[in-house]
Amino acid sequence: MNVFYRGHIIFVMTHAQIELFVKIADTGSFTKAGLELNMTQPAVSRSISTLEAELDVTLLIRDRKNGIMLTDVGKRILVLFRDILQSFEKVHQEIASEKGLEIGTIRVGAFPVASAHFLPKIIKVMAEQYPQLEFVIYEGTIDEIKEWLETRVIDVGLIIPPDDEFETIPLFRERMYAVIRDDHPLQNRPVISVKDLSNEPLISCKSGYEPPIVDLFNRARVDLRIRFVVRNVNSALSMVQEGLGIAVLSELSLWALPPNVLKKELEPEAFRDIRLAVPSLKESSNAVQTFIQTARKLFA
What we know:
41% helix; D-Maltodextrin-Binding Protein, domain 2; Arc Repressor Mutant, subunit A; 10-stranded mixed β-sheet; elongated; alpha/beta
């Protein structure tokens, strides 16, 4: 309900309403949200209707064809509600920390290579020290991770620059290599000059490879001829294996090369930086701060 106090409207919203709205947005379903929160379908509908009446705006549109959709104001409020829930989480963590405990949930976003290489080791160390911590992993592209950070879907992400919109901490620098088929004319070169790639068809991968590759070719003053653009590393390696072009990939992506594929060092050298990113270091919870400290001890 709305409470009027000295000419101002004070919105009275419960933690349960806020949590339910966020859960509906995440699952895209009243039914799924109700199941996860142990609520009946009528109770879910009643709670959301009450919330919309209190705020005097429509947050969700129920469409039989497209399912649940957020209105424009619903999208903006969703970000604020995520912040509110994170603030509740930080309160619980502060209280637990005062009692010598470390509790909470850490929502981490990472692109596939980073997820496979970094997260298992970080989580293993943290789980041994803080068994009451919980982890939720989101895998996606660099652009998806940045969007999840902006909308507060995740607490911390592993991303590739540019990253000016977030606070970031350097985590790992990996070398970039030219990847060619073993019958390519450059196969016997121990180091491949970027200038030798000026007339070669390049296979570009979207998983955070574009900025360092563009920088590499700019530094060498060589035109970049991209023939194919793929979404993931495995697709790029398969296309190299079929002789469709050359790829420039990072060392973490090349731990298991397919048959007939070689990796070669580049001249000039090229690197890709992987960073931990948060919307705000100051506002990050104790659990997220511990995650960052653990990651840096292991890999920085």
